[in-house]
């Protein structure tokens, strides 16, 4: 892939754009939590989380999966540090994806039943924590691959 990153000449443009996109999604997530906790606007909260989960799906399909498939050493040396970081990032990412889509879809099919959503509050908290871990592992992957510390 051609290297012409936005703020790092060693990174491909897709990696830099994806990094910015992930940070934007996380800001959306934090905004969605603020709307639920501070303003108690739960439908808006659900919709924002739906957008965040959709964006997450798009970036996984367009950038993460192709990048994972092209990652050298993943199968030949799966216990190396870089491979373990990338595999952990992928596993946490899959969990976030499953939880996020489940939370949004179960609400979308029966929007009037907000009580059912409230009962899933622990799952929401878990999803946010995992989402934060996924973002950190993604940042670490970027640093490891393109900043070569
Ligand atoms: C990716 C999906 C979602 C995530 C990550 C998420 C995350 C969160 C978080 C972190 C909170 C604050 C919990 C706390 O008080 O500590 C919350 C509250 C809440 N969420 Fe979600 N949420 C998601 C989807 C939804 C959906 C689809 C609905 C349905 C409308 C919903 C309804 C609520 C409600 C009603 C509360 C307030 C519960 C209460 O304080 O009694 N959430 N959510």
Please give a structural write-up.
The structure is a single chain. The longest helix has 28 residues, at about 40-70. This protein is about 75% helix and about 0% strand. With about 150 residues, it is mainly α. α1 (about 15-35) runs antiparallel to α2 and α1 (about 15-35) runs antiparallel to α5. The chain has one domain. The mean pLDDT is about 90.
Keywords:
0% strand, binds protoporphyrin IX containing FE, 5 helices, mainly alpha, 77% helix, 149 residues
Nearest-integer average pLDDT: 92
Structural class: mainly alpha
Distance between the termini: 21 Å
Largest sheet: none
The strand count comes to: 0
Ligands in the model, by name, code or SMILES, are: protoporphyrin IX containing FE
Task: Count the DSSP helices.
Answer: 5
Shape: elongated
Helix content: over 70%
Beta percentage is under 5%
Rg of Cα set: 17 Å
């Amino acid at each position: 892939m051609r290297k012409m990153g936005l703020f790092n000449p060693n990174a491909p443009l897709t990696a830099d754009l994806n990094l910015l996109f992930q940070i934007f999604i996380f800001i959306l997530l934090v905004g969605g939590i603020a709307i639920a906790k501070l303003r108690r606007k739960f439908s808006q909260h659900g919709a924002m989380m739906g957008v965040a989960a959709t964006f997450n799906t798009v970036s996984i399909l367009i950038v993460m999966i192709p990048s994972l498939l092209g990652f050298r050493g993943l199968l030949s040396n799966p216990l190396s540090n870089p491979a373990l970081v990338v595999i952990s990032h992928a596993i946490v990412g899959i969990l976030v994806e499953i939880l996020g889509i489940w939370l949004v879809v179960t609400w979308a099919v029966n929007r009037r039943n907000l009580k059912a959503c409230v009962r899933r509050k622990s799952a929401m908290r878990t999803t946010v924590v995992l989402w934060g871990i996924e973002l950190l592992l993604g940042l670490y992957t970027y640093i490891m691959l393109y900043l070569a510390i």
